[in-house]
Amino acid sequence: MTRIPSAPVAPETSAKTWSLGTFPWQERTHTAAPRARVIIDNDFSGDPDDLYQIVHHVLSPGAEIRYVIASHLRPGDPFDPGPYSAENAERVALDVFGRMGLASTDVIVRGSNDALADAHTPQPAPAVDAIIREALRDDVTTPLFYAAGAGLTDLASALLIEPSIASRITLVWIGGNEHEGLAYAPPNPMPIEYNLLIDVTAAQVVFNDFDIEIWQVPRDRYRQCLVSDAELRHRVRPHGALGQYLFDEIEEVNQRATEQGRGPGETYALGDQPLVLFTSLLSLFEADPSSSTYVRMPTPTLNADGTYTARPGARPLRVYTNIDTRLMFEDFYLKLAEFTAWQQH
Fold this sequence. Notes:
By secondary structure, the chain is of the alpha/beta class. The chain has 11 helices and 12 strands.
């Protein structure tokens, strides 16, 4: 579990501070220009894979991070049972920024602590207002991605309040059950995939009621994003206080799993990392996350039990079938090393 700080680290306590959009550790005359705007949405008080995702994303110049939404978990979640998991997520996100000396804390906005009550009533939250505000901008031409490694409450609420934003956002979502004919469920699976279960109604609103473009990384694919314990020990832990922190948060999960008779394991799934791969690590020519593969199908109806019903003629859905883990994780390890070397000297 991600440990929730009693008081987040303040960025100004770091020996070196910086702001989003600046990359002082890159010793070159230029950095990659942002090719996309990104709103990150993650449940930062849950599985610590989201810590790796946010660190990787803010270190990646290819994406302009507009907002970081701290969103909720489902009630009784073993990582953070609530009822204030969005508030706890906000504290964790602020703490990560502080540990990195990242002064741009104004981009962190809190989502709703609660799931949708029904498919017609939005849950108000500062994050919902931020989504609408960014999506309605007319002063920029870069595409806007909503990179979600959690439930979809805040996005669904924004769509319910301002339906016109559906055509202005591409959702990249880590979540949902396997699609029949493309993959099989894992052994003894949760009947409803973890991120979908956070707010099934919200996901149904997004899939079924609006014409928003969706790039989906379902459970079978994000389970592909495994790193070994040896990688974490040798390529994360040695890199300063930040690397030690990231390593320790996964060790905390391994300790809990061991106490429950299920661990420790020799691998860990950093399943939120494709959010970086698909929004920042794009091909130079004909910009796209071209190193990974997907199939295109009509967006099916998402049912309350997590299954899908075919909907011929519906808008296209991009379902990823293979993730380029080499590019994704090598890029993370090298950026972490480069950043912490600068931070320490």
